[in-house]
Amino acid sequence: MPNTILFPLFVDTQAPITINAQIAEQIKLLIAIGDLQPGDTLPTVTQLAKHLKVNHNTIAAVYNYLIESGYLVAQRGKGTFVAHTQVVQNIIIHKEFYNLLGQAFNAAVMTGLSPSEFGAAAYAQAAILNRHAVAPLKLVFIEYSQHSTGVYETIQSEIKLPLLFLCLEDFKINKSKVLKELLTADLIITTAQHQWEVTRLTAPEQEVITVNLKPDLQLLAQISSLPRNALMLLICQEEVTCKVMKQMLQQAGISHINFQTLDLEYLQKNQKILEQADAVCASRHVENWVRQYSLQPSEVMVFNFSVDETNMSVLKARLAAIQLTKSAISHTNQ
């Protein structure tokens, strides 16, 4: 955990933005550039307030904001940590944004602008440009749990647009907050396995596009070579994901294998079950764990998959059409 004295945060009372915003944005920047990583501990409210010479309530408000936004997580009696969430992954993925800001600031310094003047000028420029800019599409991807991020990452790398990741699990925990995000989306993407569940949650006028997942061809070849009635364990973080894996393999034409699905927790308590299996296939999220328990770790298959090419072509075409419509409406209203 970063030492409080060395924790690189600063407050400028003359800056044109609030102290709360200054501290919050600096913490987000440290996360983006890797100085703070998921799991790292932040100073306590009291420590950081003393270090920055600001009110205790100011730091508490900043931490609460970052917790609600998904950047931090608090554990009673243990402290406040950088969260392992998709929000954090997104800001790390798009850290180039901060690199561009750094380049712009260096250019501003050469013209004699102070940090405060640069911040004010940047805001003024953004405000003017925003009057003529078309609002970006709000795209939402929904899967069962946080452990389904592999599909999300595959889709985001293909469409190259910001994509908000929501979990069906989250609707049980904080339905109103997650539903608000969902109902304001321009387009909703999910997998075919969860189409019915997602459609029930959306507004009638909202569009939901589903994508089909296909097991990797090399994986199918490996499984196809197994003898008839061989016992294959399918291991994931959660039982529901294992069942999806089984369904995908069967839909791909694998019918001669006896599949047994089990989650990682069950495996940890019943490691001997690996000795009874003819083959083991694990999701990418639990691969390393499974190899630790396996008698032949090199023979553990990894469940790799791809998104159906036709589905992806349809998705990209719809994104282009929706963006074009939105741009036309924006120009009409100006």
From TrEMBL:
This is GntR family transcriptional regulator. The keyword Oxidoreductase does not apply. Residues 17-85 form the HTH gntR-type domain. It comes from the Bacteria. GO terms for molecular function: DNA binding; DNA-binding transcription factor activity. Keywords: DNA-binding, Transcription, Transcription regulation. It comes from Komarekiella delphini-convector SJRDD-AB1. InterPro entries: Tscrpt_reg_HTH_GntR, WH-like_DNA-bd_sf, WH_DNA-bd_sf. Transmembrane segments: none annotated. It holds the Pfam family GntR.
